[in-house]
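Researcher: Next sequence.
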Amino acid sequence: MEKKGPLLIVPWRCTIACDSNCVHCLSAGKNTFSDEVETNDAIRIVDQVHKFGAGFFGITGGQPLLRKDLFIVLDHATSLGLNTSIITDGRKLDEKAIKHILKNNTKISVSIDGNQKTNDIIRGEGAYAAAVTAIERFSKAGLLNVLVYTFANKGEVTNANEEDIIHVLELAKKYGARWVVFHGFIPYSNDKNSLKADLTPEQYEWVCNKLFDLTAKYNGKPGINVYIPFYARVAKQRGIPDYDEWWSRFFLGRCFFGKFMSIAENGDVIPCSYNDVYRVGNVKKKELKQIWNDIQKSDFFNKVKDKNNLKGKCGVCEYKNVCGGCRTAALFYTGDILGSDLRCGYIPKALRKKT
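Model: Next structure:
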C-alpha cells in the first residue's frame, strides 16, 4: 500500500493572472507573470505532488481558466490517480472547460460572497450569475464540493452580515455542497488601500459568534468551516471542550503558517496559500518532499510555529494556544511576523485594568 504524505492536498496557484477585480484578492487585475512555469515544468509539479503522497492536487489562481495548458496538466494528474479540485468564481467556464472537468471527475469549489447585490459589488458585475450557474451545473454532475465565502468591506458595503451569510448557506444546502468555507480577509500587502477591505475587530467578533450559532443550526448540512483564527478562541469561550473531534467538526481556522505549503505559479513553495513573502524553495530545483523537510527543520518556521514566541497582545493571551492569530496579518499590520494580529478585539486577562 502506497504511503500517504503529510498533507492531504497540495494546491498549485497555476497563474497569478485574473481579469476580475475582487476587492480582497492578491490577483485582482493582474497579468500573467513572465516566470510562470511552462507546461513541462507544470507536469513535473504534478509528478512531485504525487510522489509526495498527497491525495489531492488542488488548482487555484488567479483565474485558473486563463492558463491555456490547464487541462493538459489536469489530465496528467488524473492519469496518476490523484484526485483533483479547482476553485473558480464561475467566470470563464465555457463548454470546453466543463467537458474536461467532467471527464476528470474534478471537484469544484465556487467562490461566492453573498447575495447578488453584495457579491457583484465585491467581485464585479455578473459575478453572482456566473457563480450560481457553476453551482447548478456541477451540482447536477455530483462534483460540487465547497462554496467559498471571503469576508470583505468595500466602501460602505460589507458581507459581514446575517442576510448574505444565510443566503450562501441556503445555496449550499439547496445544491448539496458539502461545506461552506468562510475566510477572513488575509492581507497580501501593507498598502493602506488594500487593507481597507479587511473587517474591523468588532465585525470579526460578530462574525465568529454568528458562525458559531449557525454551525449548530445547520448541523453539518452544509458543514461550516471557518478560516479565522479568532474563531478558535470564540469556540473555546462558548464551551467547546479540548477534544480533537470537536475542533475538527467546528472549524479549521487556526493559522497554518509553516504547517502547510502551496506551490506558486513559478514553482516556488510558499508556507501557506496566502503568504508570498517567504519562498522556501523551487520545485524545478528541489524535490517537494525535501522542501517540506526543510520547512519542518527550519529554525525560522519552528520559531514562528511556537506560540511561546508570539509578541504583544497575542503573546500574553490565555487563548494563544488555540488561536495565536494569523501570522501573515501580523506581518503586514505590524511589520513583525511574531507580532499581534491587530484585528482581534479580545483583551487578554493580563492586559485588563484591575478594578
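Model: The CA atoms of residues 114 and 168 lie 6 Å apart. The mean pLDDT is 92.
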